[in-house]
């Protein structure tokens, strides 16, 4: 299930709400009219020494990247940097801060 990061034209930084702690397998759908054809999304949260990188292709101004589960287990915000990838260069073009709603840790699922 995806949450949306919608960047209006001329906007390079936004805050996105809608994630809950312990929700694994979530994706970030990035929408912006000026996205290049190929991007990476660099995700980082508290305690990470290096950002996790997800390569994406862009179609009609939209790209989708899986949010790292280790970030969804924390309550601190996740930062997602949208990074333009070129031949000999790369640069950060947009930033989304994803807030996390804290909740009680669930018990492990019972195996049937």
Give a structural overview.
The protein has 112 residues and is mainly β. 4% of the residues lie in helices and 50% in strands. The chain is built from one helix and eight strands, in the order E-E-E-E-E-E-H-E-E. The protein has one helix spanning 69-72; strands at residues 2-6, 13-20, 27-31, 38-44, 52-57, 62-66, 78-85, 90-101. A five-stranded mixed sheet has the order 2-8-7-4-5, with no helix packed on it. A three-stranded mixed sheet has the order 1-3-6, with no helix packed on it. A hairpin with a 4-residue loop joins strand 7 (78-85) and strand 8 (90-101). The longest helix is centred in the middle third of the chain and has 4 residues, at 69-72.
How far apart, in Å, are the first and last alpha carbons?
25 Å
Query: What is the CA-atom radius of gyration, in angstroms?
Result: 15 Å
Global geometry: globular
What percent of residues adopt helix (DSSP H or I)?
A: under 10%
Unreliable segments (pLDDT under 50, ≥5 consecutive)?
none
Strand content: over 45%
What is the H/E order? EEEEEEHEE
H/I helix tally = 1
Let me know the largest β-sheet: 5 strands, mixed
Query: Total strand count, please?
Result: 8
Secondary-structure content class? mainly beta
Mean pLDDT: 94
Q: For the largest sheet, list the strands in their spatial order.
A: 2-8-7-4-5
